[in-house]
Write a structure and sequence with these properties.
By secondary structure, this protein is of the alpha+beta class. Helix content is 39%, strand content 15%. Helix 1 packs across helix 5, helix 2 runs antiparallel to helix 5 and helix 3 crosses helix 4. It is globular and about 50 Å long.
Length: 185
């Protein structure tokens, strides 16, 4: 099996990280892999924000916790009620992927995020692809986070990728869903 396929098949969402910061050269390689993701008409409708400031990440988590506890979605409330709730799962770094609002920005940003997740795996790093981090960033009363993160005007956070050295040992993978393919020949 080649290394690319091996990394895709072995990549897991990691939700427990060591505090050791990710090396700058690894972040740069991960970003480059994101920039080379396929995009509709080659538009590259993204802006990537690397966050390595745990204090800021903790402030975002605190607001997310407050907003999530008031959610009408039971699963979101349950997550936020945990004493160890952290929007970033304790990762020392995260990359926020923001889109420009164009027609295919969400799909293009998803492609970039997946490329970066696989790149992190190939470098021996854990990652977690997430969207729930953004409650605080999109809330009208907390637009200061958008400014503090340097997200350009006209761009909206869509996904984030928590990145770090994993503390957890992955157990066996859940079985993959069956009977979800048909062929038309």
């Amino acid at each position: 099996m080649n290394e690319t396929i091996k990394n895709i098949l072995e990549r897991r969402s990691v939700r427990s990280y060591k505090t050791t910061q990710v090396k700058d050269q690894d972040i740069e390689l991960i970003l480059q892999c994101g920039f080379y993701a396929a995009t509709a008409m080659g538009k590259q409708p993204w802006h990537l924000t690397v966050v390595q400031n745990r204090e800021l990440m903790d402030k975002i988590t605190a607001v997310n916790k407050e907003l999530s506890l008031n959610s009408t979605i039971e699963f979101v409330k349950q997550m936020a009620s945990r004493p160890d709730f952290d929007s970033w799962h304790g990762a020392p770094a995260a990359i926020i992927i923001s889109g420009d609002g164009s027609d295919y920005a969400i799909a293009d940003c998803a492609n970039a995020t997946q490329n970066m997740a696989v790149a992190a795996q190939s470098l021996g790093l854990g990652s977690c692809y997430m969207a729930a981090f953004k409650f605080a960033l999109l809330h009208p009363e907390h637009q200061d986070f958008i400014r503090e993160l340097g997200i350009p005007e006209g761009y909206k956070p869509i996904f984030a990728l928590a990145i770090g050295y994993t503390k957890e040992v992955s157990g066996p993978r859940a079985p993959r869903k069956e009977n979800c393919v048909n062929y038309v020949r």
